[in-house]
Amino acid sequence: MSMLEDPAQPDLESCRGTMSTEEDAKWLQWVTHQFETIAEKDREINLQQFKTALNVKESFFAERFFTLFDSDGSGTITLQELLEALTLLIHGNPMDKLKFLFQVYDVDGSGSIDADELRTVLRSCMRESAISLPDEKLDQLTLALFESADKDCNGAITFDELRDELQRFPGVMENLTISAAHWLTPPAAPRRPRALTWAYWHNHRSHLLCLAAFAGLHLLLFALAASEHRARGASVMVAKGCGQCLNLDGSFIAVLMLRRCLTWLRATWLAQVLPLDQNIQFHQFVGYVVIVLSLVHTVAHIVNFALQAQAEASPFQFWELLLTTRPGIGWIHGLASPTGVALLLLLLLMFACSSSCIRRSGHFEVFYWTHLSYLPMWILLILHGPNFWKWLLVPGTLFFLEKIIGLAVSRMAALCIVEVNLLPSKVTHLLIKRPPLFHYRPGDYLYLNIPTIARYEWHPFTISSAPEQKDTIWLHIRSEGQWTNRLYESFKTSCPMDCDPKPLSRSLKMRRSQRRPEVSEKSSENHLFCNIKCYIDGPYGTPTRRIFASEHAVLIGAGIGITPFASILQSIMYRHQKRKNICPSCQHSWMDSAQDEDMKLHKVDFMWINRDQRSFEWFVSLLTKLEMDQAEISQEGPFLELHMYMTSALGKNDMKAIGLQMALDLLAKKEKKDSITGLQTRTQPGRPDWNKVFQKVAAEKKGKVQVFFCGSPALAKVLKGHCEQFGFKFFQENF
After folding, report:
1. Distance of CA 636 to the CA centre of its chain
2. Is the dihedral of CA 257, 258, 259, 262 positive or negative?
3. What is the pLDDT of residues 419-472, one digit of tens each?
4. How confident is the model at residue 20 (pLDDT cuts 50, 70, 90)?
5. For range 305-320, the mean pLDDT
6. At 422, is the secondary structure helix, strand, or coil?
7. Residue of higher predicted confidence among 613 and 327
């Protein structure tokens, strides 16, 4: 894996300003070791080995760097030549680095860079950053940079002109380097676990207090049950103590999945006290506790049975005590032992099939069906323990009421998918006819069942349309698992199942009735009108419901993680349109100063992080519309600010990207739009520098900052740490 793909790996430049003499010596030792690993017996590296080691995508740069590293022109690089070149790139002054860059761009060695050489370089830069643009756009980029740098208009860029052009971009010359493969960078020191700081306590106090209460309750229940049976020996005390804790956990684990109750609680003051947003993680945590307590409970009983079987007065053998009803253990016909064995086997099966490798490897149905074994487990628990039914009575009743209500609501009337759009990055955009009584808030999610895809499977998806859109519900579904891939492929092969015989009439009628701005992403060959039966269960609330109660909201989406914010951004757009007034005489427009009662927002920063260029395509039209509406709002500074990041693109400090990034900046200023997405917002290369991002957010002083994230758990952990550092509240979208 290259450094580009691994955020934990620094580039060569990251060592430049921070290397001590000792660290520098360690780095030289590391590079020497790595060189010897890949070099031949003659201790030299040829071009092919250099390409492999440097992990460059474009052979142009590998060949140019190799030529410049090979100072004696022998066709191979020695260790000394490698160290000299790398030392220049790490410790060299800006002028030395600039000379190196100029030599890279001066392909024919004439001492100047002509337009064709620059075009060749920019094309290679695009390939290195995984950016695909038409030749016409490449020509425009080349001319924009060439005309800006060629001050004397003599048809060539000299060294002095390149230096002057680079100086227009602050900090670039000082930090110029080459992103290199991990073999050139010593392994990073292991990260220390985060200390329990005041900021950590402030952001997690409700979570920590609930965990403390959970642990305290378990200790109390264990102690009471164990003391009650202290006359029967240590093994029985442990078994009874664990059994009493399992009574609590076996019923409480259902409470954590009461989605309708949790959605209702989010609208009350309890949402400020209880960690409702962590219900899935807490459900998983309780599951682990149940596994541990069950194993300890089982082992304690096995020890007790072994001791009983060894006693002279015992009429039963060990296997009879463990597997049969003959000893009469239990409150119903001696069923405690066999039901206990069955419970343990079911629990272990459910635990094994709940692992992420099962759920996320295209075998979700295995997880789904084995998780339904909670029904026989509760029946067995009632037969196994005399007191479990008392613990289950209230939560079990609520749980089954939720299930009955959900089943009744979802099956009351079948809905239909009326339109399908197949978007880039294997995203399926479904438009479902909205039920009359289906009321939801921005960021909510629902469960979807499409019988023609899988009759019994229900999958959660965030609603990407705004609540103000009355006629249809939008879902954007990325093809990542077995069910989502089947969905995408069923539409890709042909217009499936039930095609509408009059698609144009239906489309025209729907568009006129909706009276909404045209922000749908469509292409004729991937746009289908259908009438496919489906069922939905929901809506259910998420942490993003708090956004409109925030003062300064920072929305961060990674990849398909934009979908919760799609609904929110559209809702903001609708609300602003509602506040807009137009004079019928002069057509002058203005915005009402009064906002909605439930909307306290002063500023919204929206950040979308994508791996590649195509990942932006499916949602650009909505963002374009948002930018257009934003331009019409007359107030101090933008209310909604977009920030786009493309992680496959190399940054401005990289010699393999500086020319392209400069050209993109120049053309964006000229055309007032970004060449990659077509938005007014310039797409930034690489990953965000979260320190700088949050410093800027804090400096704006628009009110209390709350960060909302939907994306990978790894990035969530990074963001959570930065939020603790800056004192921002952090909320993560979970299913």
Report:
1. 32
2. negative
3. 888 877 788 889 998 888 888 888 888 989 888 888 878 888 989 888 888 888
4. low
5. 75
6. strand
7. 613
Contacts of 33 by beta carbon, 8 Å cutoff, 6+ apart: none
Helix, strand, coil content of the chain in percent (nearest 5) = 55, 15, 35
Contacts of 318 (CB under 8 A, 6+ apart): 305, 306, 309
d(CA 683, CA 645): 6
pLDDT band for position 512 (50/70/90)?
Answer: very low
DSSP 499: B
498: left (phi over 0), alpha (psi -120 to 50) or beta: beta
Q: What is the pTM of this model?
A: 0.75
Which residues, 6 or more positions from 25, have their beta carbon under 8 angstroms from its beta carbon?
Answer: none
Has residue 105 got a pLDDT over 90? Answer: no
Sign of CA dihedral 232, 233, 236, 238: positive
The residue written with tokens 């693109």 in the block is 649
Which residue from 705, 712, 713 is spatially nearest to 203, judged by alpha carbons? Answer: 705
User: Is residue 16 helix, strand or coil?
Assistant: coil
**Mean pLDDT in the chain?**
79
- What letter does residue 657 receive in the DSSP assignment? T
Q: HEC string of 165-216?
A: HHCCCCCCCCCCECCCCHHHCCCCCCCCCCCCCHHHHHHHHHHHHHHHHHHH
Q: How many CA atoms lie within 13 A of 419 on its CB side?
A: 27
CA distance 225 to 244: 7
Question: Is 521 within 8 Å of 421 (Cβ atoms)?
Answer: yes
Encode 552-566: b = buried (16+ Cβ within 10 Å), e = exposed: bbbbbbbbbbbbbbb
Diameter of the chain by CA atoms? 110
Q: Between 315 and 567, whose confidence is greater? A: 567
Give the list of residues 6+ apart from residue 477 with CB closer than 8 angstroms, or none. 427, 428, 429, 430, 461, 484, 487, 488
Least confident span in 184-188, 554-558, 607-611: 184-188
Q: Render 267-289 in DSSP notation, one character per residue.
A: TSGGGGTS-GGGHHHHHHHHHHH
CA atoms of 735 and 718, how far apart (whole Å): 20
| Whether the Cβ atoms of residue 644 and residue 705 lie closer than 8 Å to each other | no
CB contact at 8 A, 678 and 672: no
For the purposes of burial, counting CB atoms within 10 Å of the CB of 584, is it exposed (0-12), middle (13-18) or buried (19 or more)?
exposed
Predicted pLDDT at 361: 66
Percent of the chain surpassing pLDDT 90? 11
Q: Which residues pair with residue 449 across a beta bridge?
A: 535
Q: Which DSSP symbol is given to 682?
A: P
* Residues 471 and 434 sit within 8 Å (Cβ to Cβ): yes
Q: CB-based burial of residue 48 (10 Å sphere; 0-12 exposed, 13-18 middle, 19+ buried)? A: exposed
Task: Count the residues in the chain.
Answer: 735
Give me the half-sphere count of Cα atoms (radius 13 Å) on the Cβ side of residue 667: 23
What order do you get walking across the sheet with 552-558 strand by strand?
683-685, 640-646, 603-610, 552-558, 705-710, 729-732
The identity of residue 195, as a single letter, is: A
Strands of 410-499, DSSP E: 415-423, 427-433, 445-449, 459-462, 472-478
DSSP letter assigned to residue 594: P
Residue 514 confidence (pLDDT)? 45
Please say if the pLDDT value at position 32 is more than 70.
yes
Extract the tokens encoding 551: 């003062």
